[in-house]
Amino acid sequence: MHVAGRRSVLLASALMGSFVLTACSGASGDADGPEAHVTVTPAAGKEVPLGAPISVKAEGGRLTAVEVKDDKGQKVGGQLTGDGTSWTSETKVGPKTTYTVHTKARRGKDGKGKESSSTATFTTQQAPKVNKLTNTPGNGETVGTGMPVSILFDHKIDKDKRAEIEKSMRVTSEPKVEGAWGWVTDYSGQDRLDWRPKTFWPAGTKVSVKGNLTGLDSGEGGWFAKNYDWNFTIGADRKAVIDVPGHTLTMYENGKPVGDIKGSAGSPQDPTRGGIHTVRGKNAAETMDSATIGYGNQWKLDSKWVTYLTASGTFLHSAPWNNSIGVENNSHGCFGMTTSDAKKIYDFLPIGATVEVKGTSSTKKTDVGNGLEVWQETWEQWQKRTAVK
After folding, report:
1. Pseudo-torsion of CA 49, 55, 60, 65, nearest 10°?
2. Catalytic hit among 2, 247, 277, 317
3. Is residue 112 part of a domain?
4. Residue 110 pLDDT
5. Which stretches within the chain are classed as H helix?
6. Is 334 marked active-site?
7. Total structural domains in the chain?
8. Model pTM above 0.90
9. In the annotation, is 247 catalytic?
10. Which of 37, 247, 277, 334 is the catalytic position?
């Protein structure tokens, strides 16, 4: 072993939380001078605590290459300083993961001295809970112009952890669209982070969402174990407007009306919720069960071509049992139509399209988490939902 190699062993035993490495470069003896000392943090070993990035530092030289991989073979990105003396990972260490760090360094401030290479390995602790997310829309989907990015978390997110998580998420698009993140309580009670554009997306927009969440603490024993990366596309500019007093739904494409449909909205006792709703899902056939919206066992009616708006039960659907379609508003909050007209709406409106309800007597404010209801708030109201101050 070279003299420098023996010296590194002594240094390693004296340093806590880091691993000092020197490695042979293939040259014989010390004719070219000592090698650069490379320090990797966290230290080699098992049960490394969570919550810190990986860092590599070179003493007496410059780093020329740093490659970090996890036990699944995935590379960990990082940034090398301009002077080449240190490298820091873009994310923190994930739970129950083994990392291998390969480095190359050259002796001297100019990085032209003796080259050395080294390898370090360490394994992190297991997390009490791994927090995962469910993203809407899904990867590769084509959606309507009102679709937000909606992220539902498995476990609770502590309020003091939200800003860091929010800053680790990024939305980019072509063309570029202004928007903002906002924290939402989902109808299920789970925590949610949504991103909405300031105004509706232009048709054809390509959207990319990335989250460097690995190793972030979400609170209450929860940690993120992976990064996220998905894409979606904005489809045709299609939306609908419901005129409650006129018993009419008008379809719009590229801002122009392309057809009217007669229907029945909510009765004066159960008026249809107003404002701009976002289509959150669709179902070709469904049984309308009164028990699901708080009316006990009063009815179970088979319906087709169901387009979901709110999570609490505001739908567009066929109502073959209703003999007053287009004449009287007599539903329990939905907009009912003939079966053929419901099919037209079902086919016309993509998930993520908007449906605006005008002229309703409803005074209920629809919470943002009651579906994908980000358009129930003004842009100014929405911006207040951020955790980044």
Report:
1. 130
2. 317
3. yes
4. 78
5. 3-14, 162-167, 339-348, 379-383
6. yes
7. 3
8. no
9. no
10. 334
